[in-house]
Design brief:
This protein is α+β, with helices and mostly antiparallel strands and about 300 residues long. It is built from five helices and 17 strands. Strand 8 and strand 9 form a beta hairpin. The protein is globular, with a radius of gyration of 20 Å. About 40% of the residues are buried.
């Protein structure tokens, strides 16, 4: 088990970077060859709620092949969160976006990468104790927002560090938090375990009384009323990635264009044009795994033009 080196930092308030919107592009009359609509029965749920528990349907991913010995835990957690918001970014590109001095992203590099990649972020302000932090984290998950969190791994080899590892908090109940580990697995830790500095495994407790959390509610260039796009990986090889692109918040009977760009503000390619038959519609798409693909669902007017900001 590789423990990623980290530093404890107090982060200042987030300064959001405005990203220019894509200009309207000519619309294809028909979907590209090979694009298949996803049957309603196969559309993945975005969130599952049961009694007091909430789980975000964010698949646990592994650190990418070729990662350095230090690991790419922060890169993996960012990749998972951005898939939830409609963007596929290779971990190598995530690492480069943070411009780290070291081979992997440190605590101060993570927000740099997130902003560069167009994510909206909200920091835990270190304004309370561990119970307050866990309550803040649980509240974000209950609202459907994943949180990139720093954890200790007990028994820690580095008590002088504030955290040993980055994870994505993607589920919560009244007495536990569920984490994507960045090793392709998902685990649950009780509040008691998270408070412990002795019990083996993930914990928030450390010797400094400060805690690292960045919630990721979406992308900066999306309007509140704009349909959300969620991505779910359904097939993967060394070179190709098959996704379900799920559009949420549609207006039945309205026409939309599902777009894909390689960067925020880049030239948009029309993936498909469709008339919504309900509030949710999804499509299969297969892309080159080595490149970024950022999806957007735009409402079309009567002329077939998409709205812009």
């Amino acid at each position: 088990m590789t423990i990623c080196r980290r530093v404890t930092v107090l982060l200042s308030a987030c300064v959001l970077v405005a990203v220019a919107a894509c200009a309207d592009r000519p619309v294809r009359a028909t979907p590209p060859a090979g694009l298949k609509p996803c049957p309603a029965a196969d559309v993945p749920p975005t969130t599952t709620k049961h009694q007091q528990a909430t789980q975000l349907n964010i698949a646990a991913r592994k650190q990418a092949a070729g990662h350095p010995p230090e690991g790419w835990c922060g890169e993996t957690a960012i990749q998972e969160a951005l898939l939830h918001h409609g963007a596929w970014i290779p971990q190598k590109q995530i690492n480069a976006a943070g411009n780290p001095v070291h081979p992997d992203l440190y605590a101060s590099d993570v927000p740099v990468a997130l902003r560069k990649l167009g994510a909206r972020i909200e920091f835990w302000r270190n304004a309370g104790d561990l119970d307050d932090y866990i309550a803040w984290l649980r509240g974000r998950i209950d609202r459907g927002i994943p949180v990139l969190a720093g954890v200790k791994i007990n028994p820690t080899g580095h008590p002088e560090w504030g955290l040993d590892h980055f994870v994505l908090a993607a589920g919560a109940s009244a007495d536990s938090i569920i984490f994507n580990t960045t090793w392709g697995t998902r685990i649950s830790r009780t509040n008691k375990q998270l408070h412990s500095r002795k019990e083996k495994g993930f914990a928030f407790a450390n010797g400094f009384g400060s805690y690292y959390g960045i919630s990721i509610p979406g992308l900066v260039d999306r309007e509140n009323a704009e349909p959300r796009v969620r991505l779910f990986a359904t097939g993967e090889t060394d070179k190709r990635l098959t996704l379900v692109a799920k559009c949420e918040g549609l207006r039945a009977g309205a026409s939309y264009r599902l777009e894909r760009t390689p960067t925020h503000g880049g030239r948009a390619e029309s993936v498909t044009v469709f008339r919504a038959d309900g509030s949710v519609q999804a499509f299969h798409d297969t892309i080159d795994k080595s490149g970024a693909a950022i999806y957007r669902c735009r409402l079309l007017d009567s002329r077939g033009a998409g709205g812009g900001e």
